[in-house]
Amino acid sequence: MVPVFLVLGMIGQDFAKSFELYPAISTAPMISQADADSLKAKSLAKVFRGSTDNEVALDNGVVQFRMSLQDFGKPIFLQRKTDGNGGVVLPALSLVLNGELFVVGGENPRWVRVGARGQLFSKPFDVRQIPQTNYVWPPRGMGVRFMWASRDYSGLMVEMTYQMVDREPLVSQKVTVRNGSNFPVRISSIHQGDSGYPSGVFTGDQLNWTLRPNRVVELPDGWFRLDGQGKLVVSGRKQALNSLMPWSVLKGQALGSWPVDTKNVNGLKLKRGEVILIPTESKIPWSVPEQVDFDAVRLVAEAAKKSGLVLGAEVDLGDIPGELADRVGGSGSPVCWHSFAGVFWRQNVLANWKRMGIQVVELKGELPSRCSQAGHGEHQTPNQAAIENHFAMRDLMRQGLSVGIIIRHPDVTAYGPDQWE
Ligand SMILES: [Zn+2]
Hints:
This protein is of the alpha+beta class.
C-alpha cells in the first residue's frame, strides 16, 4: 500500500524518466515468424523507450505493442513488425468503481497516476519439473505496469499490466484492483470493446463485486493476438498454447478397463514419453484414496515405467465427493472449488497424486462455474463465483506444475488464454 503523502508527492511526475534506461525502440530487432517458430529466437521480449517521450513499447521481434505515457496506459497500437503499417488499436478498457467510470488511458480526474514501470516476468513461468525435457521452455516475458491511486479512497489502487512473451504474436493484459482503503469498494462493471471483457470466464460485463478493505482482486487475463494478416484476434489460444504450455501436446491414452493387468498396459499404442491414463471408471477418490487404490495404481505405475511411459489419470469433476450444497448445478455436477468439499479436495489431491507417481491429470467434465450457494467463501454474485472458481483451478494447475504434475482441462490453462477460438 502506498501512503497518501507519497502518492500526492508524485503528481506531475515525468513518467518517461521511468523508462530512460531502456533501449530505444529504433534498436529493436526484427525476426521472421519462421525463425520465431523454429525456436531460434530466445529471450527477445523487451521493454523499449518509445519513439517519443510519451511512448513506451513492448517488442519481441515478431510484434510490437506501443503504449502511451501521456494518455497514461492507453494502448496505441499492436503491430506485426513485418507489416510495417500502423497495426491495430486495442479497445479501451473501463471499470466502474463505486459508481464512477475509470478508463485506462482516459481522463480520470479522481485518480492519481502513481507510476509506470517495466518488469521481467520470469517467475510465473518458473516451473521446476515437466515430464519431457526437449522443450525450449519456459518462455520469458516482459511487461509494463501502470498504476493509479484513488484521490477519494486512500489506499485504493488500480493496476494495468501489459505483458509479452518471447516469439508469440500476442500481448496480454491484466487488471488488478487493490483495496488498501478502510472502505468497501464496489466494482460494478468491466468493459472493453464491442464484445465485453475479453475473457470467457464470466458472461456479460456486470460484476457487482464488493471488495472489502485489504482485499485484492485480479481479474482474468485478456489476450490479444495478431493473425498472419495482421488482424486482431481476441484470445487466440491455440497458437499460443504450444509455446506457453508445451505439455499441452503430450499424447495420452486411457486404459480400457480397471483394474488392469499388465497385458492391457502393453497393448496401448503409445511411444516412450507419452502418457498412460488411469480411466475415470476407476472411481478412485483421489482426495482420500485407500490402500486398495494405491496397490492398483502401483501395478500400472510399474508397467508404465518398464515401457518408458508417463503415468497419468483421468479425473471426472463430477466425481469429486461432496454434498448437494457443495455443487454448482445439482447432483452429479462439479463441486464449487470454494465449498468445503472443493477446498478439501484441492488440499489433498496433489500430495496423493505425487505419492502414487501420477504426473499428468486429465480433468473431464464441466468446470464449476457460476455458483450462488450460500456458505462458499466470499461469493457475492455468480460472476464473482465464476472468476474465483476459474482462478482456483488455475492456481491448482500452477501448484501442480511446481511439483511436477501437469493438470489439463479444455477450458482452463495455467498460463495464457483460456478461450477457444
Ligand atoms: Zn460456490
